[in-house]
Structure formats: C-alpha cells, structure tokens
C-alpha cells in the first residue's frame, strides 16, 4: 500500500505508529471513532482542547497521572476547577520548569507547599511491582495541530509530544511530493515560531524536530533566525542521510524506534541534560540543553548491550568525526556503566576513561563532571599517583591521559 506522505498524512502515520489510531482532531458534527487507550507503542492520543496555553500543560494528562499515582495530592490540588488552588499549583510548576527545565522537573518532581509531587516514573528495577505499576501509569501523549500561542490563536504545530502533560518535543513536517523538504521545516521554525512564546522558551521542550520523508533534524533551543539544527539521521554508505527503507519511510526510525515509551524514557533518564558552561574568553556562564543525536544514542546503546553480554574487563574505543560529540558519548556511556548491576551488586568498581590528548582530556573531564548526579563519583588524575589513590578510594569514574 502506498504511504501517504502529505503533511497531514505524515501526522496520521506517526500518530498511528505511536498510539494505534490517527488521532484526528475533533470536527464539529462528525462522530469520532473510539480511540484505544493504549496502542501502537503505548502512546495516547491527546486532544488540542486539553492544552492550557497559559501554563503550557495538557491538564487532562497531568490530572490522570496524579489521580493514578498520588490521589490525595491530586484531590488537594483541585485540578478539575479553574480556581485559585489550581492556578497557584500551575504557577509553581511553571516557575520550577523555568528554573530547572522540564528535564529537571520530570526527573526530580516538584515541591508545592508541604507536598512533594512526582511527575515522572523511570524504568523500574526487576521485581519491584510498585515501581512497575507507577511506570505503567506514565502518560505519553501526542497531539495533532497543537495551537500553542496565547495571542495568535490560529498558529499551530503539526505535532506536540507530552509526558504526563508536560511538553517534551514538537514536530514540523514536510514532504517531497509538494517540493518541500526538511530545510523548509527548519526555516518555518526559524521564521514563524516566536521564541518568546512560552512553549518555545529555553528548557520548556526538550527537543524540536524538523522532519520530512528523507531526513530528520533537531534543535534544543529555538532562537529565531539563530536556531541551530543538527542532523538526526542514521547515515548511509559512510555518508549523510538515511538508507532506503523497503518497509516504509526513510525517517520512520524516529517514531518506531527512538520515541517508543521505553526509548524516550531512556533518553529522559540517561541522556537529556541542561548544563552550565563558562565562556573561556568572557568568563560568562550560560546554560545549554543537550539531546543526544542519533549516532550518539546508537553507539552508547550498542556498547551497553555488549557490556550486558560480556560483563566487566573489556576495553572500548569511541570514535566520532570532529565536532560530533565524542565527549558526550563517552560521558553517557561511563555514567550508565557505573549504574549497571547484577544480582543486586555493581558490575564495575571503577570506570577509567583514557584520552590521548590533553585538550580532549580537559573537555571530557568537564563534560563528565557536568553530567554527574553526584560530584564525588568523578576523579581527574593529574599525576600517575592519582590513579592509585582514586582506585583505592573507590572513585566511580577516573579520567586520565595515556601519558600518565
């Protein structure tokens, strides 16, 4: 059967893959077919009418999560009524997202008065039935034609992705049949998506995708004309782009493999970051949001799979082309290795990261320390004696150069 690659056809295709239904927006006078609660890869069809443009939240999905996992808190917040109690909570939630980003709020929850609210449940450990039930209660939803603007109410994104009511990704879709490509989607973001809109503020969405039937590009911080989009392609024949796909579109790996519930949970838990960097020339600090590119996800997941099969004691070489994020890939791999466990015991006592250049040594050191949840886990060996000391102290990640 021929694939409908018109923009609305792509919307329906992506929604059907994720939810099991096309998620057509409601039309007046038309009876909608019932939507399966969970289908596809476990996503839910969102309703554009449920999106609160003032607070940037899908209230229906947020309310469902809290009722299922924290019913007493949900009742106290009075989320069914548009009154002072609900508004106070939503204002608190938005304040925390502005400070810590959606990534931080999903990972660590939010405190509102005397109550701590968990807004996301990560991958449960085997055998933990309560954690598994909470994980299953997560609400991954996708909304077509998302009207996001508080002022220009007709402006809409092709797709918005939400986790427990909080926006995590947006899509602009194009297709080659109408002679529009991924570059037109990029330009639409730069030209038409005002970064002053709350949905496009730094840290609000984790990533923005420009997609056509051949390529994918991604951006983590919309800045109007200065928005920087990077490829999110698989590569083909030692070059750019994506390989032919006999079973569908060249870009369907994005929604069929990367954005499954388990896949996105993994990214939110282990990869997506907001880091603070200091400009060496001006000494000014700035925040950057990081989302893994396809080749980074691919290499780290393959290495972790190999480690799961073969255990400790092996050596790994991570190599990317210049400027393709080697330091991030190494940091993601090292941090996930120290979390591996077998029979309730850590697989690794220490991870040693070795580089062959001093400038790369400093770059990797800074990146690994930025990604660390606990600063005491990382040690940088300035001298050869430091290696012995750090190993004896039980440092989890030790960074050094071959010269030491």
Question: Can you characterise this structure?
Answer:
The chain is α/β, with parallel strands linked by helices and 404 residues long. It has two domains: 7-258, no CATH class; 293-401, no CATH class. 36% of the residues lie in helices and 19% in strands. The protein is built from twelve helices and 18 strands. The strands form six sheets. It has a seven-stranded mixed β-sheet, with helices on both faces. The protein has a three-stranded parallel β-sheet with strand order 16-18-17, with helices on both faces. It has a two-stranded antiparallel ribbon with strand order 2-3. Strand 6 (140-147) and strand 7 (156-163) form a beta hairpin. Helix 2 (59-69) packs across helix 3 (71-77), helix 9 packs parallel to helix 10 (326-337) and helix 10 (326-337) packs across helix 11 (358-371). It starts with 6 loop residues before the first helix and ends with a strand. Residues 28-32 have low confidence and may be disordered.
Rounded mean pLDDT score? 89
Q: Label the overall shape.
A: globular
| Helical stretch tally | 12
SSE order, as H and E? HEEEHHHEEHEEEHEEEHHEEHHEEEHEHE
Question: What's a concise summary of this model?
Answer:
With about 400 residues, the chain is of the alpha/beta class. The chain has helices spanning about 5-20, 60-70, 70-75, 85-110, 130-135, 180-190, 255-260, 260-270, 295-310, 325-335, 360-370, 385-395; strands at about 45, 50, 55-60, 110, 115, 140-145, 155-165, 165-175, 205-210, 215-220, 230, 275-280, 285-290, 340, 345, 350-355, 380, 395-400.
Give structural attributes.
404 residues, alpha/beta, 2 domains, seven-stranded mixed β-sheet, three-stranded parallel β-sheet, 19% strand, globular
């Amino acid at each position: 059967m021929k694939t409908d690659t018109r923009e609305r056809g792509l919307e329906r295709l992506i929604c059907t893959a994720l939810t099991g239904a096309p998620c057509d927006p409601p039309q007046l006078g038309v009876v909608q077919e019932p939507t399966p609660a969970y289908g596809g890869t476990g996503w839910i069809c969102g309703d554009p009418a449920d999106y609160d443009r003032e607070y940037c939240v899908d209230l229906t999905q947020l309310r469902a999560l809290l009722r299922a996992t924290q019913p007493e808190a949900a009742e106290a917040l009075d989320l069914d009524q548009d009154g002072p109690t609900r508004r106070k909570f939503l204002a608190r939630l938005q304040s925390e997202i502005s400070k810590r980003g959606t990534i931080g709020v999903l990972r660590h929850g939010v405190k509102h008065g005397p109550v701590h609210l968990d807004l996301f449940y990560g991958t449960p450990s085997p055998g933990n039935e309560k954690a598994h039930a909470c994980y299953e209660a997560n609400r991954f939803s996708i909304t077509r034609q998302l009207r996001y603007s508080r002022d220009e109410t007709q402006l809409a994104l092709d797709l918005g992705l939400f986790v427990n009511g909080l926006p995590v990704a947006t899509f602009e879709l194009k297709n080659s049949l109408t002679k529009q490509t991924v570059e037109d989607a990029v330009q639409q973001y730069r030209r038409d998506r005002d970064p002053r809109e709350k949905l496009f503020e730094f840290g609000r969405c984790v990533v923005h995708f420009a997609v056509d039937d051949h390529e994918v590009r991604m951006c983590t911080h919309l800045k109007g004309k200065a928005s920087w989009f990077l490829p999110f392609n698989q590569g083909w024949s030692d070059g750019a782009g994506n390989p032919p796909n006999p079973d569908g579109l060249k870009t369907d790996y994005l929604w069929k493999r990367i954005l499954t519930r388990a896949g996105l949970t993994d990214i939110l838990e282990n990869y997506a970051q907001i880091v603070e960097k200091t400009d060496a020339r001006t000494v000014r600090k700035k925040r950057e949001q990081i989302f893994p590119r396809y080749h980074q996800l691919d290499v780290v997941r393959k290495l972790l799979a190999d480690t799961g099969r073969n255990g400790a004691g092996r050596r790994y070489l991570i190599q990317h082309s210049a400027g393709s994020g080697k330091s991030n890939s190494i940091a993601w791999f090292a941090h996930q290795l120290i979390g591996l466990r077998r029979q309730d015991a850590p697989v690794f006592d220490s991870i040693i990261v070795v580089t062959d250049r001093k400038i790369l040594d400093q770059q990797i050191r800074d990146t690994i320390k930025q990604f660390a949840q606990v600063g005491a886990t990382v040690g940088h060996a300035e001298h050869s004696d430091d290696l012995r000391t750090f190993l004896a102290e039980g440092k989890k990640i030790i960074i050094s150069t071959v010269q030491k």
